[in-house]
Amino acid sequence: MRKILDLLLPQTCAGCGAPGGVWCPGCAATLDDVRVVERSATRGLAPVLALTAYGGAVRRAVIAYKERNRWPLARPLGLALAAALPRLAALVPAAAAAWPALVTLLGAEVGDAEPGHGRGVLWLVPAPSTAASIRRRGGNHMARVAGIAAAALGARGVRAGVAPALAYGRGTRDSVGLDRELRAANARRHLAVDRAALPPSGSPVLVTDDVITTGSTAAACVRALRAEGHPVLAVLACAATD
Asked: Distance between CA 10 and CA 19 in Å, rounded?
C-alpha cells in the first residue's frame, strides 16, 4: 500500500521540493548546528539554544509539519534535536554535569562533569500547544518530536524520556500574530502543569520547542517547571527567529 501511495502521491522534500522523501540530506544539513539564542524574556532563567535560524528550508518544513499534516517530518526534526544534545552539553556545563552520558557521545570532556555522577534520565518536556492546535494537528506536534529524540538517545545509550507536563488552558490565544507583550501575557495566564505527567520529583529537565520567537513561551515554561521543583537546564528549539 505504501508503494502504491508513493506512486500516486510521490513524496517531495518539505524544505526544497526535491523528490525522494520528506526531508533531503541537503536540507538536513541546515539543522546540523547549535547556537545560543538571546532573548530578554529568558535572560537569567535558563540557556536557550536553537539548531538554526528560522527561515528557508527549515521554516517551510516546520510549517508543513505543523499546519499541513506532514507528520513524517517529526522524525528528522526529532533526530536533529537528539544529535544536537551533546553539543548543547558542551555549551551548558549544568547539562553536562546532570547527563554525563552526553559527554561520552561528544567524545570529549565538557565542563565539570564527573564520570559516574548524576546519571539520571534526561527528561524532555515539550512546549505546549493550544487545545485547538492539538485537535487540528492530531496531537501535540512537539511531543511527537520529543518522543523520537528520546528514542534516538536511548539507542545511543542515553536514558531519556518525555514528560508532556505542560498544557494551555481554555481561553488561550494562538501566539501567531501577537506582539511580545501579548505573547507573554497569554503564556503567563494560561500555562498549566499536569503534575501527573511530571518526571520524578526534583529531576532536571530540558524544554523542547519548534521555534523561539520572543522567548515568552520558553520563559513561561521554565517558570512553571521551576515552581514545581524541576530545574530547567536549557531550552532547545529547532529554530529561532532573527
From this structure: 7
Q: Does residue 180 lie within any of the structural domains?
A: yes
**Tally of structural domains, the chain:** 1
List, in order, residues 6 or more apart from 58 with CB less than 8 Å away: 15, 27, 30, 31, 51, 52, 238, 239
Domain that holds residue 72: 33-240
Instruction: For residue 219, give every residue at least 6 positions away whose Cβ sits within 8 Å of its Cβ, in sequence order, or none.
Output: 39, 41, 42, 45, 184, 187
Cell numbers given for 189: 495566564
**Looking at the domain assignment, is residue 205 inside a domain?**
yes
For residue 39, CA distances in Å to 56, 125, 217 come to 22, 20, 11
Predicted structure pTM score:
0.86
Give buried/exposed letters for 31-40 (b at 16+ CB in 10 A, else e). Answer: beebeebebe
Task: List the one residue out of 142, 127, 141, 126 whose CA is nearest residue 217.
Answer: 127
Q: What is the pLDDT of residues 217-232, one digit of tens each?
A: 999 999 999 999 999 9
Q: pLDDT (tens digit, 9 = 90+) per residue, 62-109?
A: 999 999 989 999 999 999 999 999 999 999 999 999 999 998 887 643
The sign of the CA dihedral 240, 73, 61, 140 is negative
Say which CATH number the domain at 82 has: 3.40.50
